[in-house]
Every structure is written in structure tokens, then in C-alpha cells.
Amino acid sequence: MKKTVMVILIESVHDPIRYAEYIAAVKAIVEQHGGEYLARSNKITAFCGTIKPERSIVIGFDSLAQAESCFNSPEYRAVKHLREDSTVSSAFFIDND
């Protein structure tokens, strides 16, 4: 099935150890909620604008409700401090229905 909602995260990591803890925990949470990692990379080439993230992640979900459920879940809330404490980041839901 085509994923209709994308979660886009752009990050600059300043604490790689805590960030690694976050990555180890969050993958199972995302997959448990039906999310699929579509891209994860630190190989980013800007072609316009001034934002220069070190890392970008794209996660696909079947619906906005599914994506919101994942990132508002008790499981995610228990680990999101690891991302907040280890990165400067922005995250977006893009609904492509």
C-alpha cells in the first residue's frame, strides 16, 4: 500500500551517544505503529535555502491519524527526550492523500 503521510525529520546531532539510544528505541515504536522508514541519511546536498541539517529521516504512514498516534503514544513520549536532548531538530507531517 502506498504511504500517504510522510514524517520528515531534519536534525543536527550534538550528543551521538544519547542519539544512538534514541535510534535504538524508536525504530520498534515506529514499526509497531505501522510506520516504514523510507530514507535515513547524513548524505544531504542542499540545492536552495539556508537550512543545513546533518541528518534527515523520512518515515511513511498510511494516514495522518496513524502518524500522530505513533508520535503521541506513551512509548514514544518515554523516549523522545533522548532526541530532544541530543539534537537540534525539526519534524513535519506531510499529508499526500
UniProtKB/TrEMBL annotation:
SUPFAM superfamilies: Dimeric alpha+beta barrel. It holds the Pfam family DUF1330. Residues 7-95 form the DUF1330 domain. This is DUF1330 domain-containing protein. InterPro entries: Dimeric_a/b-barrel (IPR011008), DUF1330 (IPR010753). It comes from the Archaea.
